[in-house]
Write a structure and sequence with these properties.
The complex is a heterodimer of chains A (about 250) and B (about 260). Chain A is α/β, with parallel strands linked by helices. Chain A has a domain at about 1-75 and about 155-235: P-loop containing nucleotide triphosphate hydrolases (Rossmann fold, 3-Layer(aba) Sandwich), CATH 3.40.50. Chain A is about 35% helix and about 25% strand. In chain B, about 85% of the residues lie in helices and about 0% in strands. By secondary structure, chain B is mostly helical. The longest helix of chain B is centred in the middle third of the chain and has 39 residues, at about 85-125. Chain B has one domain (about 40-250). Chain B has nine helices and no strands. In chain B, about 45% of the residues are buried. The chains are: A alpha/beta (about 250), B mainly alpha (about 260). The interface of A and B includes residues 77, 87 and 98 of A. The structure holds adenosine-5'-triphosphate and magnesium ion.
Chain lengths: ~250, ~260
């Protein structure tokens, strides 16, 4: 279980997070929705400690994430970055197997490569891609390599920052199914950001909407459509008019 | 009025001091991470190749032409008081003590500080540094330590090669244009040079190598956002490395040769 309480973060005068309270139950998937630039990516980075919150506490299984052994903490996580964030000096398979090749539990190279190729297959990439460099791939392929890297070490907690943006509808379907499978079969806790409402319905157990620096609405995905919150309704139906301003 | 003037002077001074403090902390951090495992051998080997091996041509060419020009200058300058014969000795001492390390260091600064800062800066703006952290890999250990260690070890070797090539350049000019006897030229150089003349240059080289890689990594890690941020970081790394090399050279020369 991940618990955030009263998380604040500003960049200069830009007050991005203004007291976020959120609980993600263990073994469930939480999808964060919200307008572009509302701080969804910043929120994920706060949990990982990549961005230090100005105030508030974040805990994993009751333990404050800023205390204790960072390495042990991060070893439980996988993260897909919005931009992929692949290491462009390493080959695709070395990117995917990055964690497997290093550290105390490092695997032999052949074994790590085999795992990498299997993970690539799961995100719909052929083995031939393994020996290319990230710069030689299309945007959507890079995104999927990033996804393969995030799940390579079978982490307990996985964060996906817009896993399906830039993918064709079929590939989006494949990735949504994969994320669902990881949560159900591996029992991982997932936190995903997406703008794609069909992804929300495919992935989510729980949904949270971030707006104006706070969680505007949160609840099980089944209750989302019936919820009366006008902000949420405008967002899920993509209406141009409503309480959320078009210019942000 | 006076208060305002003082404030105007004080502010940049404080900014410079703060920058020095941050660089010093970064250097201490680098050394701390160097001394604690894990050590990334593959990254170190790549850095050695990039910083050492691939800098050889530029350092060699610089030294060669500098040695040649030095021989011409000393010959024409020495002629004013009939001291043309000292060309071999002055070329040797000038290359080994000063020009080898300083010009070698500056060439490496131009080549290496810029490429390190641009590479790490790009990794920063494309979230690759964040990705490293989430993959339980410390960016200081994975990026900074291998580069700084490689530069500290490789630049003295580059300086030694540069010294030899520079002295060779002086010899070539001396023998072909200035009428020196080849055997005598070499004999004079050998007899004159002391171990510390060369050794002090190598120590300087190690310090300059450390400075170059450290500046590249520091400005890369602290790069601003976007292409503009990376560009600014690259420029700052080269400028800072060059100025610090020249300042460190003065301090080291003072330490080594005045007593
Ligand atoms: N490192 C940073 N420095 C300064 N401002 C930042 C930084 N990171 C994010 N911001 C600001 O924080 C705000 C939220 O950014 P964030 O990337 O979290 O948005 P988002 O909700 O993920 O949007 P999108 O859906 O477009 O990805 C933006 O206004 C952005 O300018
Ligand atoms: Mg985002």
């Amino acid at each position: 279980m991940i618990t955030l309480s009263g998380v604040h973060k500003s960049f200069g005068p830009n007050r991005v997070l203004r007291g976020v309270d959120l609980t993600i139950p263990k073994g469930q998937s939480m999808v964060i929705i919200g307008g572009s630039g509302t701080g969804k990516s910043v929120l994920l980075k706060c949990v990982l400690g990549l961005v230090a919150p100005d105030a508030g506490t974040i805990s994993l299984e009751g333990q404050d994430v800023t205390r204790g052994d960072r390495d042990a903490f991060l070893a439980r996580f996988g993260m897909l970055f919005q931009g992929g964030a692949l290491f462009d000096s390493l080959r695709v398979w070395e990117n995917v197997a990055f964690r497997l090749l290093r550290g105390a539990k490092a695997m032999p190279k052949d074994e790590a490569r085999a795992v990498a190729i299997e993970k690539l297959r799961r995100v719909g990439l052929k083995p031939a891609v393994a020996d290319l460099f990230p710069g030689e791939l299309s945007g959507g392929m890079q995104k999927r390599v990033g996804l393969a890297r995030a799940i390579a070490a079978n982490p307990e907690v996985i964060f996906f920052d817009e896993p399906t943006t830039g993918l064709d509808p079929i590939m989006s379907g494949v990735i949504n199914a994969l994320i669902r499978e990881i949560v159900v079969e591996m029992g991982s806790t997932a936190m995903a950001i997406t703008h794609d409402m069909s992804s929300v319905r495919a992935i989510a157990d729980q949904v949270a909407m971030l707006h104006d620096g706070v969680i505007r609405w949160t609840g099980p995905v089944a209750e989302m459509d019936a919820a009366s919150d006008p902000y949420l309704q405008q967002f899920i139906h993509g209406r141009a008019t409503g309480p959320i301003e078009g210019v942000r | 009025m006076i208060a305002r003037t003082l404030a105007q002077i004080g502010r940049p001074v404080l900014a410079v001091l703060a920058a020095f403090g941050r660089v010093a902390l970064f250097a201490a951090d680098t050394i701390r991470h160097l001394l604690t495992p894990p050590f990334y051998g593959r990254e170190f080997a790549i850095a050695l190749l990039q910083i050492g091996w691939f800098s050889l041509p530029v350092v060699g060419l610089t030294a060669f032409f500098t040695g040649g020009a030095l021989a011409l200058q000393i010959y024409s300058g020495g002629a004013r008081f009939s001291a043309e014969a000292v060309v071999p000795q002055i070329v040797a001492i000038g290359m080994a003590r000063e020009l080898g390390p300083v010009l070698g260091g500056l060439m490496v600064a131009a080549r290496v500080a810029s490429s390190i800062a641009a590479e790490i800066g790009t990794m920063k703006v494309t979230e690759q540094i964040d990705a490293l952290v989430t993959l339980s890999t410390h960016p200081m250990k994975y990026l900074t330590v291998p580069r700084v260690l490689a530069a500290t070890l490789a630049v003295p070797i580059l300086v030694a090669v540069g010294d030899s090539i520079g002295i060779g350049g002086g010899w070539l000019v001396g023998v072909t244009k200035l009428g020196f006897n080849s055997a005598t030229y070499i004999q004079n150089t050998n007899d004159f040079l002391e171990v510390w003349d060369v050794g002090s240059g190598l120590v300087k080289g190690a310090v300059f190598g450390f400075i170059v890689a450290l500046m590249g990594c520091y400005f890369g890690m602290n790069s601003g956002r976007g292409a503009q941020g990376v560009g600014a970081a690259t420029k700052a790394a080269v400028v800072a490395a060059s100025v610090m090399i020249l300042a460190a050279n003065y301090v080291l020369t003072g330490l080594f040769f005045t007593s």
